[in-house]
Amino acid sequence: MAAAEDFQQPDTVSLLREQGFTRLRPAQMAASLPVPAAALAEFAESWNRLETDRFMADGGRYRRRRHTSFNALPGRPALRNLHRPHFQATVHNSLNGGLDRWFAPVEDAIAHGPALEALLAFGTGVVNDLRPATPWFIEMHQFRIEAAAGFPGYPTPEGVHHDGVDFVMIAMIARTNLAGGETVITNDAGDELARFTLDGLLDTAFVDDARVMHGVSPVKPADATRPSCRDVLVLTWKGL
After folding, report:
1. What is the pLDDT of residues 74-95, one digit of tens each?
2. CATH number of the 4-239 domain
3. With the C-alpha atoms ordered 216, 219, 222, 227, is the resulting torsion angle positive or negative?
4. Domain ranges of the chain
5. Are 129 and 121 a contacting pair, CB within 8 Å?
6. Dihedral sign for Cα atoms in the order 116, 169, 7, 199
7. 202-211, pLDDT tens digit by residue?
């Protein structure tokens, strides 16, 4: 497995340090992740095999997902943990927090594949520069938000929020027949710091979760007669 320092992105580190967030466009990510196109295509295709999230307190069935976690000791590559639940306190997720949520595990071929290996190494290299010598608990979430005519999807049904971790990386996988889905970054007072629409494979937002909040506006089909979905990868790092 590649070492985290092999994938560092100095501009990303500087911008996170200065403003608490940054965006990396697909070309920047491609330059930082020497992953074969076929491996990225296989990674993206796995979003077609996510399972329905049955922990939506709003009763919605518009979200599919898989989940896994890793630990990364200083100077060592991330190692996958045994499957475990995802937990968020209600202060960070007022809709679905406060309980253990057991999601379908990320497929082994994806969790141990070259695309995720490179993404983990890149992100861990960034957070290691910001917090040297920190052991990390890393969670990986695959999300698909579906929408139909008259039935919008909600990428962040809890609203603009903190995740209760140290850093969050949100990478677009695909937008299919989609309208909406703007990412918004605010401070704790609610002042908007940035607004943009992730679009294109690995168009990525990276945020310092303690310093800024993030959220995504609802989505709907651009063409009401066709299927519509928003696929994203979310990686989080929390110091141990």
Report:
1. 989 999 999 988 776 666 555 5
2. 2.60.120.620
3. positive
4. 4-239
5. no
6. positive
7. 999 999 999 9
